[in-house]
Amino acid sequence: MSLPRIVITGVGLTAPNGNNLADFRNALLTGKSGVQPYEIRYFGKTVAGICNFEATKYQSRKDVRRGTRAGSIAVYCAHEALADSGLKIEDKSRVGVFVGTTEHGNVETETEIHNVKQYNYDLSFWTHHHNPRTVANNPAGEVTLNLGITGPAYAIGAACAAGNLGLIHSAQMLQLGEVDLAFGGGVSESIHTFGIFAGFKAQTALGTHADPTKVSRPFDKARNGIVVAEGGCLYMLERLPDALKRGAKIYGEIAGWCVNSDASDYVLPNAQRQAECMRGALKRAGMKPSDIHIVNTHATSTTQGDEIEAEAVRTVFSDAPHAYVNNTKSFIGHAMGAAGALELAGNLPSFADAVVHPTINVDDLDPKCEMRGLVVNTPRKVDRVEAIMNMSFGMLGINSALIVKKYVN
Known about the structure:
The protein has 14 helices and 14 strands. By secondary structure, it is α/β, with parallel strands linked by helices. It has two domains: about 5-245, 3-Layer(aba) Sandwich (Peroxisomal Thiolase, Chain A, domain 1); about 255-405, Thiolase/Chalcone synthase (Peroxisomal Thiolase, Chain A, domain 1, 3-Layer(aba) Sandwich). Helix 11 (about 305-315) links the parallel strand 9 (about 295) and strand 10 (about 325). Helix 3 crosses helix 6. The longest helix is centred in the N-terminal third of the chain and has 17 residues, at about 70-85. The relative contact order is 0.18.
């Protein structure tokens, strides 16, 4: 039995350098970074990728106060994706909301501990909103409350592969007939928890540079760690016949995917497992490495992580003459659960304009990170872009590879 084809018909996002796809894409083509100086309690001064979207565009001030930053990001992205799709939802019980997330909830608990400290740890000052704020399904749940959606809605916990998993799970639920429409992608509020900065610093994995916009520099010889970022991207996904019936604009078609595990280390990635994941996605899509035109890397600007991923990419794409390699974190930092979803969005317009956005801040390419087709510092016009492989990996050894292809009837 052949499964229905799944297409993307709407994109809603907020990134540190843009609050819609057009602005985000323009930033990626003009070298505009979204990383800036930042200070957070207990940790002090650092840098972060900070979003500047209007939360009250779709929420009341009361709902913003009662909910979470991740929830506001998800609500904003969902509304933007819905508006972009041109859909009018008729049966809200047939809509799913599948939101990838990583660190959600930490910031709420940290905030409450900080607050009660001011009252000698008198827990009577602990907010009654704490529990609904910290449950993992909060961002998806806030979307359902805001839009009145009564279908399945929950979080996809997959570390920094979660954004990809939100899309993959949406496609699977549509193919199974469990829903007729799906909001899928990922969100992150990570910059609001001091613990994540302290944790990465303890791992000696938090990047530094005199210029905040150059801290995130994947593949550069002088890279020294990640930039923590917030953001979100949700897509509207539909079965192809439904999209065609209403004359929808189609951004691309979900062609294949693979998710696997390293089973080798808590944080250090595994090039062999990553390569297997890429090959698994190609096999599912019925494609060869030479069919891929953009390989969007996960690379976070850590010394070992970038080297290992470059090794995996060389293993799979060494003989793929039309595969161009790029990276989005160099512009916005690492948006954790939102990373994969945002990074795919930045490349989708390449189907129309055949331009590959670059990896910026590569002043001295590390020989260990050399890859055929790596696009650095300036965009590259190519003959055509018909397929994108979007890669996202995460702690505890989770790997994901998602292939989106240009829609052809």
